[in-house]
Amino acid sequence: MPVLNIAMVGSDDLARSIAKPTDQRDVHTYVNKDMVNGEAQILSLIRPAKYPERLRPLLNALSAARAGLVEITAIDATLGEALVAFASANIKQGIAVIRPPQGEWVDEDMVKTLFKQAGLTDWTFEKDDGTELRTALYAIMNSMAEELQMIEQQPLVVPIDQHFNVKGIGLVAIGYVQSGSVSVHDEITMLPSGGTGSVKSLQVMDDDVPMAGAGDRVGIALRNAKEESLSGTCLIVLPELEDKRKDIHRPLALESHSLSQISLNISPFQKRKLTVGDVLHASIDLQFVVGRVETIDGGVGTVRWETPLLQRIENPPSVLIAQLDSKPRIMGDANLAKLE
């Protein structure tokens, strides 16, 4: 069941013209499901409703997304910051919709220049029409089919953003499968706590399923797991496995950083530079981790994290670096190497 998660900066009205609303928390989600040759294909819009007032919902949406959608009502600082965010998150494909309020006008040529300056050269500009926008988003999904399949072959990583006890079922954890796949009866490990458990059942789109793959928003019913292991930051992975007889070696998918070397790619719209003592925020796999710069030399430095930062060992995604008192708040993206 192919799924394309799309981070959206725009209005509820535009989102509803494309897909049906499903979850209306800090991050609103909208889903459209079409059957193609007997197989369901799903578009999932992830819209940070409290952006631009709050930055973290946007960063969480970008963490889960593979494509983007931006509604342009004016050329302003919010648009500039959103373009920086999409570019820094390496969202290479997306759609822009110019949609000024009635009686107002937006210079399309100027907007296209901003997209080009931000590095979003492969994004397209589409009409304000829900049906045409769905078609364009499905075209992006089809163009990314091979990439999405490859992500599902990578080690399992599921950041958990909700958990609760359900009568008759037990402890349930909910999150986006960022990479890999999880199946019923799998043994799992919860990081950074190190807690363990097994998968009792899985739900995707309110349906019981035997397996959930990359892109799915999944509910995982857990057996023999402690609720405190899910508190705070929690990412579910498969446990380390070592079987010399069968020549099987499976390390944990994530490594924990307390001190990282950071190579920062500053956004073209960002004039501020990092200095020693600066406090910054890193967003990766739905984590939002605070750190302090200990050393800096050009674009390379070291950062000590207040709480452990978990990074995939294999094919780590872009790490978005933000400073909440800078304009734009997004500094750019970074490569991290573990020092401690």
Secondary-structure content class: alpha+beta
Oligomeric state of this protein = single chain
Strand order of the largest sheet: 2-3-4-1-5-6-7
Mean pLDDT equals 93
Strand content: over 45%
Unreliable residue runs: none
Question: CATH superfamily membership of the largest domain, which one?
Answer: P-loop containing nucleotide triphosphate hydrolases
CATH architecture of the largest domain: 3-Layer(aba) Sandwich
- Taken together, the total number of domains comes to 3
Shape: globular
Describe this structure in words.
By secondary structure, this protein is an alpha+beta fold. It folds into three domains: 3-151, P-loop containing nucleotide triphosphate hydrolases (Rossmann fold, 3-Layer(aba) Sandwich), CATH 3.40.50; 156-250, Translation factors (Elongation Factor Tu (Ef-tu), domain 3, Beta Barrel), CATH 2.40.30; 254-338, Translation factors (Elongation Factor Tu (Ef-tu), domain 3, Beta Barrel). The protein is 18% helix and 46% strand. The chain has six helices and 24 strands. The protein has helices at 12-18, 56-64, 77-88, 108-118, 130-143, 145-152; strands at residues 3-9, 20-24, 27-36, 39-48, 67-72, 94-98, 124-125, 158-166, 170-176, 181-183, 187-191, 195-204, 207-209, 211-213, 217-223, 235-237, 241-243, 248-250, 254-266, 279-284, 287-297, 300-312, 319-322, 330-338. The protein has a seven-stranded mixed β-sheet with strand order 2-3-4-1-5-6-7, sandwiched between helices. α1 crosses α5 (130-143). The longest helix has 14 residues, at 130-143. The protein is globular and about 65 Å long. The chain starts with a strand and ends with a strand. The relative contact order is 0.13. The model has no long low-confidence stretch (mean pLDDT 93).
